[in-house]
């Protein structure tokens, strides 16, 4: 595979864009080499500037549940664009997508649309603090909730002690209000709550983690968090930016039967356009401006192109009763194929899978939290990544990411992927 044009474009981009990219993971720092510059995409495939074709398992980091350039989404955007791209006034379309989202997702009465997952989580935290009149939040090491200050807190500091910023620019004052807990460890969370009695506004969690590879919650973990929150007047925030409208049409709340107090969305809800959202029951959402005192706003929030794409996407997901099952079956097939190929070549690995999310960890022990995820062999991952790329399979350029399965993938595509794993496994 040749990447000449991508190399030249990357060089040029580095002159005018920091690191040549507008979001860091795209730069291939973790795996080395030149990032692939995308030219177009259709269905299961992405095409780069050198006209290479890749079977895509990133899918814009999640949004493309039905594949790239999905016709109903594309048509909806084109039609809307002809009528004006932004008004800064309310539109009927916003109510239509809100009504559908509220109908699809359990346990929410109202939803507010924003422009990214970061905005959704940042706003959810402010709302939780305003509503509870408390300052501290608990987040889990290895969970990602966007790049707003409260969430950029280093893992590894003592869980009960104050956090420290891991990004310069985050003030110590902000960091001390974010407490770090261990994913899937309820006793750890309990001890943090106990040590900070009466001070915690919210616990925010990816109810299925996808940002340290894919890590599903262990049996009872979410239920226990729910109980802990109820007993201590803490709001439970599910960050379903990755899982919402993906793992079930109502997200993890539906899948696991556990209610959150506030839910954050992004990715799929925007059908590939910049959208995020947060939602809750009336009592909480009515605390938000203009009805309530907690301020939150956006010039382009509820943008007609974004809402048109999102609505077209949600309608498809809502109407297709077999979709989740099909996605789950394809992912299971891929899981079995990859496991067999790696086992045949004695490559140590652990595969985590739930619904249409899957990740391959080059580690022997179960991967249940950040510490175990970090034990994966990164050198093996690098070889694996480049071996797959050179065979036309595009997976995320970091071991701490999830593969996203789309409905556009055929069993032929999956077989091609498994064959590529078999090939590269010989040199791992
Ligand atoms: N929450 C989760 C769970 C995410 O996976 C992401 C993005 N990967 C975000 C929040 C942030 O979303 P965005 O990049 O749209 O700001």
From TrEMBL:
CC cofactor: pyridoxal 5'-phosphate
Record's keyword terms, sorted: Cytoplasm, Isomerase, Porphyrin biosynthesis, Pyridoxal phosphate
Subcellular location: Cytoplasm
CDD domains according to UniProt: OAT_like
Domain of life, source organism: Bacteria
Catalytic activity: (S)-4-amino-5-oxopentanoate = 5-aminolevulinate
PROSITE patterns: AA_TRANSFER_CLASS_3
Enzyme class: isomerase
EC number(s) per entry: 5.4.3.8
Pathway assigned in UniProt: Porphyrin-containing compound metabolism; protoporphyrin-IX biosynthesis; 5-aminolevulinate from L-glutamyl-tRNA(Glu): step 2/2
GO molecular function, one term: transaminase activity
Gene3D superfamilies assigned: Aspartate Aminotransferase, domain 1, Type I PLP-dependent aspartate aminotransferase-like (Major domain)
Annotated GO biological process: protoporphyrinogen IX biosynthetic process
Modified residues (N6-(pyridoxal phosphate)lysine): 267
GTP-binding among keywords: no
GO cellular component: cytoplasm
Oligomeric and partner information: Homodimer.
HAMAP family linked to this entry: HemL_aminotrans_3 (MF_00375)
Entry similarity comment: Belongs to the class-III pyridoxal-phosphate-dependent aminotransferase family. HemL subfamily.
The protein's name: Glutamate-1-semialdehyde 2,1-aminomutase
Organism field: Winogradskyella endarachnes
Taxon lineage: Bacteria, Pseudomonadati, Bacteroidota, Flavobacteriia, Flavobacteriales
């Amino acid at each position: 595979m040749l990447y000449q044009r991508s190399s030249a474009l990357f060089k040029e981009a580095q002159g005018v864009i920091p690191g040549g990219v507008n979001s860091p993971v795209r730069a291939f720092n973790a795996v080395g080499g030149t990032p692939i510059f995308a030219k177009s995409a259709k269905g299961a495939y992405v095409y780069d500037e050198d006209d290479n074709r890749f079977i895509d398992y990133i899918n814009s980091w999640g949004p493309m549940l039905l594949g790239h350039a999905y016709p109903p989404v594309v048509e909806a955007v084109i039609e809307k664009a002809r009528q004006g791209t932004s008004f800064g006034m309310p539109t009927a379309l916003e109510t239509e997508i809100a009504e559908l989202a509220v109908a699809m997702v359990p346990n929410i009465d109202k939803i507010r649309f924003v422009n990214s997952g970061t905005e959704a989580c940042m706003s959810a935290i402010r709302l939780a603090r305003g509503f509870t009149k408390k300052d501290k939040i608990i987040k889990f090491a290895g969970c990602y909730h966007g790049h707003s200050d409260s969430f950029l807190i280093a893992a590894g500091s003592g869980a009960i002690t104050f956090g420290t910023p891991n990004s310069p620019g985050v003030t110590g004052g902000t960091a001390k209000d974010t407490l770090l807990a261990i994913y899937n460890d309820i006793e750890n969370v309990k001890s943090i709550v106990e040590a900070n009695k009466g001070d915690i506004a919210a616990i925010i969690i990816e109810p299925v983690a996808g940002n340290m590879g894919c890590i599903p919650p262990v049996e009872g973990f979410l239920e226990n968090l729910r109980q802990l929150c109820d007993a201590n007047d803490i709001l439970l925030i599910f960050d379903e930016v990755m899982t919402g409208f993906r793992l079930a049409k109502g997200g993890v709340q539906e899948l696991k039967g556990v209610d959150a107090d506030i839910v954050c969305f992004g990715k799929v809800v925007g059908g590939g356009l910049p959208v995020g959202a947060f939602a809750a029951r009336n009592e909480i959402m009515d605390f938000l401006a203009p009805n309530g005192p907690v301020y939150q706003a956006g010039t382009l929030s509820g943008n007609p192109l974004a809402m048109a794409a999102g609505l077209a996407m949600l309608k498809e997901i809502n109407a297709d009763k077999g979709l989740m099952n099909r996605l789950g079956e394809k992912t299971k097939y891929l899981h079995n194929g990859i496991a067999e190929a790696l086992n045949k070549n004695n490559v140590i690995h652990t595969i985590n899978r739930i619904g249409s999310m899957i990740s391959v960890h080059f580690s022997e022990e179960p991967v249940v939290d950040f510490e175990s995820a970090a034990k994966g062999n990164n050198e093996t991952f690098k070889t694996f990544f480049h071996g797959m790329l050179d065979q036309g399979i595009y997976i995320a350029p970091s071991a701490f990411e999830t593969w996203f399965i789309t409905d556009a993938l055929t069993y032929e595509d999956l077989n091609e992927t498994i064959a590529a794993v078999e090939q590269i496994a010989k040199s791992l």
